[in-house]
Amino acid sequence: MSGFASWPEPVVRVQSLSESGMRAIPERYVKAPSERPSFTNETENHHKHVDIPVIDLTNLFGEDPTLHEETVRLIAVACKEWGFFQAVNHGVSHELMERTLEAWRHFFNMPLGFKQQYANTPTTYEGYGSRLGVQKGAILDWSDYFFLHYLPDSLRNQSKWPSQPSCCRELLSEYGAEVVKLGGRLLKAMSANLGLKEDYLQNAFGGEDIGACLRVNFYPKCPQPDLTLGLSSHSDPGGMTFLLPDHDVAGLQVRKNGKWITVKLVPSALIVNVGDQIEVLSNATYKSVEHRVIVNSVKDRVSLAFFYNPKSDLLIEPAKELVSEERPALYSPMTFDEYRLYIRTKGPCGKAQVESLGSI
Ligand code: OGA
Ligand code: NI
Description:
By secondary structure, this protein is of the alpha+beta class. Helices cover 29% and strands 19% of the residues. Keywords: Dioxygenase, Iron, Jasmonic acid signaling pathway, Metal-binding, Oxidoreductase, Plant defense.
């Protein structure tokens, strides 16, 4: 509901560019030198073995209170220091993860004519898209995507989800249900560690009436990966994100102390990150951290980003319990509907948006 009915320029599918065999990418994908990926930094982290924390969630679901508390503590430390972690033993079926990812790979490998029937517009963003933001003349990212609503039921419209491959809709329904369950467990852990009631964050998100949507990203291989990005630096505007990435192609980078760390994927992990709404509710105890995606010249990459969001018309503001004279509210209240207009208009802009809420 961004109010924009159409894209400012004709839509070009990045996958078509990639498949055309061109040796040089068009100028509108060439980033300013300061934004380009630096492959030297990446080598540096590699030597230092710096990476986002890996957390085993087995004991979050278990009975032992000491082990449970220790897991909650690890989650909180990760949310404070990194805004990101890789969850293993998270309860989402590995087979389901693999099959869902495979179904989407299949979708993106369908003929362009089939995918075009799902072409999206900036009004709701639902469907097959190739840009984020409606700024005319913007430098674009090297990716296509498919965006859809999972919750609430009133926005979920399976006829807007791909009809092919035929297993896609069913797999997605199942996968989403498991991820939503995991999201509820994590919100409890995050609330408890803030000293709030266990159901605080879930209630702030609207209880049962949360929002959830999915963006499936497709990053085609790129002849000049050093000049562009698959997805420019941004923080996720929503509550919390569950990323299921391609297992054999790296690409996600997380910003830590001004440096870009390339995430090394642990098999069967889901990458969890804090979005802007949780940063606001926690009054900046938990951090919504900038991340971006680099591309490569060898392999296409697919990822599923499942966004677990607050009900879109609720006011989101720092929890009163976390506001005091010494630590005033760092953000002004806003609904998620209003909040997400920004990225839908301007495209990815690092942390500019959440920082703009701080001017109260
Ligand atoms: C996103 C995102 C990362 C990736 O969709 O918001 O950050 O690796 N995706 O695709
Ligand atoms: Ni993101």
